């Protein structure tokens, strides 16, 4: 008998499904697309509907958690993402970008209990009244994510740290769903972040016109005509819209407050003062 | 008018004149008391006391005479393997099942309670509620658990609620009257305090939190507010009224938290089955399991206790 | 007092609710036989030492180095060396060090809570449920600011001051350390901190936390000692900032000593807070708030509600409820999970509480305590209230810093405000009423840095804390807490 070395061990492949309501379902449509050799789920409008339902269901509880608690949860995301750094690198995300994404989660974790302090406060009205303005989340945010991993984190984190819940349409399925796995193991309540992998041009219109979505982030839309169409659809229920930038996308700098404030409502409370 | 020195002529001003309850404060106090720890030797006595306070309850549409007979037998001897285990305080059933339980419990000292007055909604004409009550008593119930009309209470028709309670009290005769406030539907602790006083002024022997048929049943803070009410009511009138949390109390740990609450709020006078009851079903088996753990030194499992 | 209830044989109810003892395990903390100074990232032995004792038993816990002037010199020099590189780090990197510290504190919180109760005498329920969670939260909060200073409202490029000299008291040893160190580090300063003479241990354990977090050497230095060590530190020419929490008397001395220098100064000093109960208050919760206000941490709280002002129309009702509630307070072993009131921190503090209480009685106020058996060893004082107190009594004017409540009355809101403000202090105040407009109007008129309405003794890292008048100046906590450490 000819001498043979032991056969190389066959690896177990991961199945990339959707991330909705804290679980990883297949698309109800049964469709997949081939991306880099993997059959990844191709989400449908009904998946979008289910994702909005999941996001809406958990939104009051997520917004009702203390800011401190939300900050802790986001910091936990950073910890878990750091632990799976190699996995993202293996998926082709540059190591420096994974590191930047970890730091981005840390940055936003710190905002949880500070955004109200720099974006709200007492108003000295001319009368015997206590008058205080404080930010509150707008609700459910639909996000068309940019292709880069740091971009993906940079659109999700500001939405959720402020108490919103999100439905993300991602075009980089493996990294996005792996991020979903990070979130699923980070004390983030199921439904706070929902990830749909598929074609934005197919799903986004359903999200843009969905009456139970409060805001639409078009950062990842690179087709100006599609962006305009989506903004028009969003006008139907007066969604808050974040338009795509006109300059090339760059997520490496200080994001500033706008990604958060764009998804906040300001509530002002009046109360008389008197013995 | 019942045997109290308080005027009920203007119920609204009496009830709205009670001091308010601060939600955050009462919940903080209840959760602080829940951290109290009972040492092992006292725990055994706490468990036996809790068993003696259980109103062993079955209130299902699917109740049958067989089920009620089995439950009544269990009430008398909760742990057939251990004769030192005390019986529970009472069995609590629908009026149609009173006649089934009565012969089993007769002469045992275990009371027979029946829900009446169109339990659980309270949405029936008064004469139906009174007939319900009389039937239950006639069949052998010596305790009546009535529900108040939450609709009437919430719309401010306090006189109507008061009159219903006095009428049921009269119909119940010698039977002890427990008045269910259904605190999960009252919405605020202020309302819990007002409903407690309303029931006591109308002659309730016990005030009880819940039917167990709405999503929110007994909680520690609600029971704390009710214990403050019976404490203050006795200080004002000299009459002692009992408290019965019901629904949602499933573990020994929970039950002991309630005992601590009694001890530190109303005081040790209420640490007695005559003045405090647990409306529960699955609680009993957990008490028995913990009791066995204390006796044997190792954990037991549900397979070792009867399911009734 | 519950612990002193006569024991009736054969009555199961009394047996059952002798909750105690339910001791927290002491084995989670290992105390070494001696501790040195933490300077430049390492422990070194000082020349002299002093002992720290468990105030509940008078047992010596360990020996601690007594830092002399040359030790303080070394610590300041180490902090100065570390200052440049530390302040040059990107804020996001400093943030991650602070997050690490916060996480390590969370993971070691039971150990640190037991240690704090041993060294300080406070009940484990408080060190476990209040002190330690707040310590971790404080580091988390300021960690988040480290890379966001440009958003804090102190200019586009706020700069650190350099080296902060920090002196903290014995009432909340680790929490006061957190209040001092977290904002200082977040803003890029380095620190030399002196814990109180009677409670040095948690600060020394914190030094170990810094090592675990791999914090660069010299960023945090801990020098232990008494008043002299503190004086050397705050008067050291090499420090840029002095932060002190303690008595008004010492605060005054420090304010004098930094006069004429370029040092920045914040002071968090004494208080004599009014806790005002109106006739429409939620009585049961007000009573809880009164009890919490004065008996929390044995009354060793600068913002304690030590003057109770009750509206005359509800005086009898509130006082009766308060006395009833006080009889359920459990005084005893700080490590017992059921203890409400632990040991007085030191013999000296006990003597001061006794002296002022005796003065109260001599001046004609009526003294009352629930029946109470106190342990034979250690430093103990029964919860006490004085009725018939007037504004002229010393117990209505001087900070007792113990479990002693002075009860006064008022008739109208204006009178309540007048009495509440009639003190050189201005740290905190409490208001109890169901009427919102009254809360806000009274709060407006109170000259106090923190006003609690329908609650008391609430602390949060996001919320600024500090006093008016002789209660000090500067704020700790919140966005405001950054200001003291920024140029």
Protein structure class of chain C: alpha/beta
The share of residues in extended strands of chain A comes to 15-25%
Distance between the termini of chain A: 102 Å
CATH architecture designation of the largest domain in chain C: 3-Layer(aba) Sandwich
In whole angstroms, how far apart are the ends of chain C?
Answer: 52 Å
Please state how the strands of the largest beta sheet of chain C are arranged side by side. 13-14-15-12-11-16-17
Shape call of chain C:
globular
Strand element count of chain C: 18
Q: Kindly state the percentage of residues in helix of chain C.
A: 25-40%
- How many individual domains of chain A? 1
Structural class of chain A: alpha/beta
InterPro entries (chain C): Ald_DH/histidinol_DH, Ald_DH_C, Ald_DH_CS_GLU, Ald_DH_N, Aldehyde_DH_dom
Family (chain C): Belongs to the aldehyde dehydrogenase family.
GO molecular function, one term (chain C): oxidoreductase activity, acting on the aldehyde or oxo group of donors, NAD or NADP as acceptor
Protein name (chain C): Aldehyde dehydrogenase
Describe the 3D structure.
The complex is a heterotrimer of chains A (275), B (308) and C (487). Chain A has helices at 45-64, 67-83, 85-90, 95-111, 115-118, 149-161, 173-184, 200-208, 224-235, 258-261, and strands at residues 32-35, 38-41, 121-122, 129-137, 140-144, 165-170, 193-197, 215-217, 240-242, 264-272. Chain A has 275 residues and is α/β, with parallel strands linked by helices. Chain A has a single domain (32-272), classed as Aldehyde Dehydrogenase, Chain A, domain 1, CATH 3.40.605.10. Chain B is α/β, with parallel strands linked by helices and 308 residues long. Chain B has a single domain (18-298), classed as Alpha-Beta Barrel (TIM Barrel), CATH 3.20.20.70. Chain B has twelve helices and eight strands. Mean pLDDT of chain B is 94; it is low at 1-5. Helix content of chain C is 38%, strand content 16%. In chain C, the strands form four sheets. Chain C has a seven-stranded mixed β-sheet with strand order 13-14-15-12-11-16-17, sandwiched between helices. Chain C has a six-stranded mixed β-sheet with strand order 8-7-6-9-10-18, with helices on both faces. Chain C has 15 helices and 18 strands. Chain B binds chain C through residues 19-22, 24-26, 28-29, 35-39, 41-42, 45-46, 48-49, 228, 259-260, 263-264, 268, 271-272, and chain C through 12-22, 125, 129, 280-285, 288-289, 328, 337-338, 434, 454-455.
């Amino acid at each position: 008998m000819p001498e043979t070395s032991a056969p190389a061990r066959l690896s177990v492949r991961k199945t990339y499904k959707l991330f909705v309501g804290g679980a990883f379902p297949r698309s109800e449509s049964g469709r997949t697309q081939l991306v880099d050799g993997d059959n990844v789920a191709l989400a449908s409008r009904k998946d979008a509907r289910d994702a909005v339902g999941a996001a809406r269901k958990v939104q009051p509880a997520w917004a009702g958690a203390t800011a401190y608690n939300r900050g802790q949860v986001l910091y936990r995301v950073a910890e878990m993402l750091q632990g799976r750094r190699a996995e993202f690198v293996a998926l082709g995300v540059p190591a420096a970008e994974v590191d930047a994404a970890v730091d981005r989660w840390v940055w936003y974790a710190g905002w949880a209990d500070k955004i109200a302090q720099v974006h709200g406060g007492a108003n000295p009205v001319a009368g015997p009244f206590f008058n205080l303005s404080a930010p509150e989340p707008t609700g459910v945010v639909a996000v068309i994510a940019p292709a880069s991993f740091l971009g993906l984190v940079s659109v999700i984190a500001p939405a959720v740290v402020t108490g919103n819940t999100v439905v993300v349409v991602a075009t980089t399925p493996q990294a996005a769903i792996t991020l979903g796995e990070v979130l699923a193991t980070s004390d983030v309540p199921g439904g706070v972040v929902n990830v749909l992998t598929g074609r934005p041009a197919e799903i986004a219109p359903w999200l843009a016109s969905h009456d139970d979505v409060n805001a639409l982030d078009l950062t990842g839309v690179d087709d100006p005509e599609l962006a305009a169409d989506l903004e028009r659809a969003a006008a139907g229920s007066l969604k808050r819209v974040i338009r795509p930038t006109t300059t090339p996308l760059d997520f490496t700098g200080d994001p500033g407050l706008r990604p958060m404030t764009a998804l906040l409502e300001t509530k002002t409370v009046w109360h008389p003062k008197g013995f | 008018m019942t045997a109290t020195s308080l005027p009920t002529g203007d119920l609204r001003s009496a009830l709205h004149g009670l001091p308010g309850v601060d939600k955050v404060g009462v919940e903080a106090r209840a959760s602080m008391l829940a951290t109290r720890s009972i040492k092992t030797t006292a725990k055994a006595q706490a468990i036996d006391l809790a068993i003696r306070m259980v109103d062993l309850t079955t209130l299902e549409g699917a109740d049958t005479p067989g089920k009620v007979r089995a439950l009544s037998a269990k009430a008398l001897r909760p742990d057939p393997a251990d004769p030192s285990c005390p019986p529970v305080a009472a069995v609590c059933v629908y009026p149609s099942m009173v006649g089934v339980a009565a012969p089993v419990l007769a002469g045992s000292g275990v009371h027979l309670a029946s829900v009446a007055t169109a339990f659980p909604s309270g949405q029936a004409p008064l004469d139906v509620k009174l007939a319900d009550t009389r039937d239950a008593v006639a069949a052998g119930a010596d305790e009546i658990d009535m529900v108040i009309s939450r609709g009437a209470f919430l719309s401010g028709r306090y006189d109507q609620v008061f009159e219903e309670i006095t009428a049921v009290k009269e119909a119940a005769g010698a039977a002890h009257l427990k008045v269910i406030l259904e605190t999960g539907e009252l919405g605020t602790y202020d309302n819990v305090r007002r409903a407690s006083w309303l029931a006591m002024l109308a002659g309730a022997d016990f005030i009880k939190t819940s039917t167990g048929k709405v999503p929110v049943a007994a909680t520690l803070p609600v029971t704390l507010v009710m214990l403050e009410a019976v404490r203050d009511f006795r200080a004002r009138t000299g009459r002692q009224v009992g408290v019965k949390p019901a629904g949602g109390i499933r573990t020994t740990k929970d039950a002991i938290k309630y005992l601590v609450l009694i001890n530190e709020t109303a005081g040790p006078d209420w640490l007695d089955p005559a003045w405090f009851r647990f409306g529960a079903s699955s609680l009993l088996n957990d008490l028995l399991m913990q009791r066995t753990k204390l006796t044997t030194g190792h954990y037991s499992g549900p397979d070792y206790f009867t399911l009734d | 007092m519950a612990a002193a209830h006569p024991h009736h044989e054969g009555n199961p109810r009394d047996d059952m609710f002798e909750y105690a003892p339910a001791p927290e395990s002491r084995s989670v903390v290992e105390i070494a036989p001696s501790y040195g100074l933490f300077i430049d990232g390492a422990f070194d032995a000082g020349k002299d030492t002093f002992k720290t004792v468990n105030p509940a038993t008078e047992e010596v816990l360990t020996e601690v180095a007594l830092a002399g002037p040359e030790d303080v010199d070394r610590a300041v020099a180490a902090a100065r060396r570390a200052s440049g590189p530390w302040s040059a780090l990107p804020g996001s990197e400093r943030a991650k060090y602070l997050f690490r510290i916060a996480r390590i504190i969370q993971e070691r919180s039971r150990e640190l809570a037991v240690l704090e109760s041993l060294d300080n005498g406070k009940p484990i329920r408080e060190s476990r449920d209040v002190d330690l969670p707040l310590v971790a939260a404080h580091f988390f909060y300021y960690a988040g600011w480290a890379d966001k200073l440009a958003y804090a409202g102190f200019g586009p490029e706020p700069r650190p001051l350099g080296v902060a000299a920090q002196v903290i008291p014995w009432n909340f040893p680790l929490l006061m350390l957190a209040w001092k160190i977290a904002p200082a580090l977040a803003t890029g300063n380095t620190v030399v901190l002196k814990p109180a003479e009677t409670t040095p241990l948690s600060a020394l354990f914190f030094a170990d936390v810094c090592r675990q977090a791999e914090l660069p050497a010299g960023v945090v230095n801990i020098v232990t000692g008494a008043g002299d060590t503190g004086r050397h530190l705050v008067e050291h020419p090499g420090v840029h900032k002095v932060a002190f929490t303690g008595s008004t008397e010492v605060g005054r001395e420090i304010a004098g000593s930094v006069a004429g220098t370029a040092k920045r100064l914040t002071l968090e000093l004494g208080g004599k807070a009014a806790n005002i109960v109106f006739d429409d208050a939620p009585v049961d919760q007000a009573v809880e708030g009164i009890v919490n206000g004065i008996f929390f941490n044995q009354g060793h709280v600068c913002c304690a509600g030590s003057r109770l002002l009750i509206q005359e129309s509800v005086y009898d009702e509130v006082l009766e409820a308060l006395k009833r509630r006080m009889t359920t307070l459990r005084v005893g072993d700080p490590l017992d999970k059921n203890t409400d009131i632990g040991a007085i921190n030191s013999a000296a503090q006990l003597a001061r509480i006794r002296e002022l209480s005796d003065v109260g009685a001599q001046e004609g106020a009526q003294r009352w305590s629930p029946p109470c058996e106190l342990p034979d060893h250690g430093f103990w004082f029964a919860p006490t209230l004085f009725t018939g107190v007037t504004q002229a009594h010393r117990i209505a004017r001087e900070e007792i810093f113990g479990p002693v409540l002075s009860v006064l009355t008022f008739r109208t809101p204006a009178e309540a405000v007048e009495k509440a403000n009639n003190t050189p202090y201005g740290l905190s105040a409490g208001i109890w009423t169901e009427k919102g407009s009254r809360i806000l109007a009274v709060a407006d008129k109170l000259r106090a840095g923190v006003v609690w309405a329908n609650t008391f003794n609430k602390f949060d890292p996001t919320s600024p804390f500090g006093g008016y008048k002789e209660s000090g100046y500067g704020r700790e906590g919140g966005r405001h807490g950054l200001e003291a450490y920024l140029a």
